[in-house]
Predict the structure of U-box domain-containing protein.
Amino acid sequence: MEVKPHTARVLVGRLHGATAACDGAAAAAAVSEIRLASKEDPEIRAPLADAGAVPLLAAQLHHASPVSVDAAAALLNISISARDQVATAPGVLDALTSALRSGHAAHHAAAVVYSLLCGGESHRAAVCARRPLLSALVALLRASPKPSTRATKDALKALFGVALYPPSRATLVSLGVVQALFALVMTDERNGIVEDATAVVAQVAGCAESLEAFRWVSGVRILLDLVEAGGAATPRARENAAAALLNLVVAGGEAAAAEVVAVGGAEETVRELAEDSAASPRGKAKAEALLRALEGAGPAARRREHRLSDFLDGLVQSDPYISSPASASTHG
């Protein structure tokens, strides 16, 4: 039973010694060894964390060089078995922010952020409180040249995890995430990107601040185009678009409902999804709930001016599809 801790101490000792001696080549070799060990042997991940690997690896993320890729990958592997130790290690979140900005290790760094977000409420709050880190994630979506598909998808997964934490949604909106997400929806044809982007849009829509940002990018019209039969490349993207519209109306109330109804044919488009026998139960449920909400913004709204707000208050309490990570996730 002592073999794993001993091996971990030896590996970490090599990295510590190389770092202390300012020997970049030796440090890179030691990080590579730790990455390989943490990938091939799950049982050594926690001992590596116990031996002090996390802060040493985090320090390597500040280097815009290949060693940062190995360091971020090793942190990702270790986080699977020792998430608390990674999340609470000094300087880790700052180091991840640096890695997201450097480009070399961005995809691994985004994956580490997502892993930490899965670690419970305290870890999620700590990550979401770091505005520079959230800004780096949003910037990754806008990067030019376009990041790899893997980097973009990892960034979207991390942003989805951030957006599941309601207090962070307004922050993301202020950082320009709505514009970045709709740019992907409109222009990115890579496999799975639109599905993942619309999943994040659906969560971000669940704050009152999102309505104005949606106006700037014609977001309601774009989402309705995706809800329309044949408008989205995949059924899940269509579902996510309906979920986004529903969350927008729930969060924005009558003003948001009026924005949706103002688009010609909006209710008919949503009704088609609700009545589509080929649509998934989730998609149909979202469309049905949205239709009920939109009734309060139609021509007869003056006769029932309080009906929409009363309905939405009840919907938030009773509808199991709203703000549900399991139903909203594009990752199963």
Observations:
- The CA atoms of residues 132 and 261 lie 37 Å apart.
- The mean pLDDT is 89.
- The chain has two domains: 1-150, 165-322.
- The domain at 1-150 is CATH 1.25.10.10 (Leucine-rich Repeat Variant).
